Amino acid sequence: MDPDPALQALLAHYQSMPPVAAMQLQIAGADASSLRLRAPLAAHVNDKGCAFGGSLVSLMTLAGWGVATLALERAGLRADVFVAASEVRYRAPLFSDLEAVARADAAELAAFVAALRDGGRASLNLDARVPLPEGGSACDMRSRYVAIAKAA
């Protein structure tokens, strides 16, 4: 994993939640507006031998939450971030390890940070997907996250 202290703190936060720790997720990469998480299929296999749909959604939700959280932390802001709404499309079964990529538009991310700084509340829409190894998507999601500033 990247030695970035913010990513290390994010991974520690994920692992502090028992349901998330059970997912065995790892941070596979990040930049200013995206986050990529991985998890082994063996921890998420369903009765058909492919990835459990709930695991796909959970991994995408956590990736999106991470994008929002990292953006605020990098801006020096403290807030609680929540997923508020999601629309999910299951496209194909996944028979390999899971990888979720969440990405926010850079301008929307900047507006999210500014709104929290100015008003103590902010909302961010972003997209996430679980790609298939051969191309295409196993699952896509559009979500809205909200942030509420923490008291100083």
Plain-language structure description:
Strands 1-2-4-5-6-3 form a 6-stranded antiparallel beta sheet. The chain is globular, with a radius of gyration of 15 Å. A hairpin with a 2-residue loop joins strand 1 (26-31) and strand 2 (34-39). It has helices spanning 5-15, 18-21, 53-74, 106-119, and strands at residues 26-31, 34-39, 79-90, 98-103, 121-131, 137-149. By secondary structure, the chain is of the alpha+beta class. Helix 1 (5-15) crosses helix 3 (53-74). It has 4 helices and 6 strands. It is 34% helix and 36% strand.
Overall outline: globular
Strand content: 35-45%
Order of helices and strands: HHEEHEEHEE
Uncertain regions spanning at least 5 consecutive residues: none
Lateral strand order in the biggest sheet: 1-2-4-5-6-3
Mean pLDDT: 95
Rg over alpha carbons: 15 Å
Beta strand count:
6
Q: Structural class, from secondary structure content?
A: alpha+beta
Number of helix segments? 4
The span between the termini is 31 Å
Fraction of helical residues: 25-40%
**Biggest beta sheet attributes:** 6 strands, antiparallel
